[in-house]
Amino acid sequence: MRFFYLLRIHHWIKNLFVFIPAFFAGRLLEKDIVLLLGQGFLCFCLMASAIYILNDYRDIEADKVHPVKKKRPLASGKVSPTLALVIMVLLFIVSLGWSYSLSANPTFAILVLVYGVINIGYSLGLKNLSLVDIFLVSSGFLIRAVAGGILIGVIISQWLIIMVFLLSIFLAFAKRRDDLVLAQTSGTALRASVRQYNIEFINTCLALISGVIMVSYIMYTISEEVVDRINRDYLYITALFVFAGLLRYLQITLVNNDSGSPTKILLTDRFIQCTIVGFVITFLIIIYI
Questions:
Q1: Are 21 and 156 in contact (CB under 8 A)?
Q2: What is the rounded CA–CA span in Å between residue 43 and residue 94?
Q3: Which among 140, 155, 170 is the end of a domain?
Q4: Radius of gyration of the chain (CA)
Q5: What is the pTM of this model?
Q6: What sign has the CA pseudo-torsion 169, 171, 174, 180?
């Protein structure tokens, strides 16, 4: 179980962003596409786990005084730093080698490498720069989505790129808000970048970004490009689930003050789970039936 938490396998769900292009292109039911994207998904999972280990290694001392992170394998001493570093290097090598073997086009492997380099920079100190940390986290989600499209040869629409980027910024700000609330409660800024944020600023950003996401999604569903491609003109119906999911996430963030882990929210909040299931089913019916 200690290695499960060391690799943060429960966070691998974030790498499902590689499937987004296939889903919106109506190709998610093609066996070859799913198998190829499944391998791409695992490449990003291994790279992400390598970065998690590096981040935990550098933050051992800080995590020891964190009310939650002190339980992590390295901070708690359940895994030795030497063993963790060996695992990290192996994961990095396997991820890059595997991603390079998936396609004659090296672009996918290059994006996996870029994702790793960006996150190494994040772990080595860029996460301490306010706003820079937000955009670096967001770029990781965007890279995964673009990489998924490149791997299967699907062109990603401008609206989809905008929505993925905005959604990832929204989630990053919500997480920083939780960091800020925790810092105010404990009396210590647990992240250096938190000192450059305050509740009012983050609340304003969340409200602004969520509004832009909603408008962007509506524009996507009624754009001529999408309507002509799927030969359907009522995709806008799915916007109901997008709105409901965003509003619920805002409620968790602003009312419950519990947005520290998007993964935890996704795996435990029944309302958001229902909106996702409703969105997927409705979208599949419109696209595939």
A1: yes
A2: 8
A3: 155
A4: 19
A5: 0.88
A6: negative
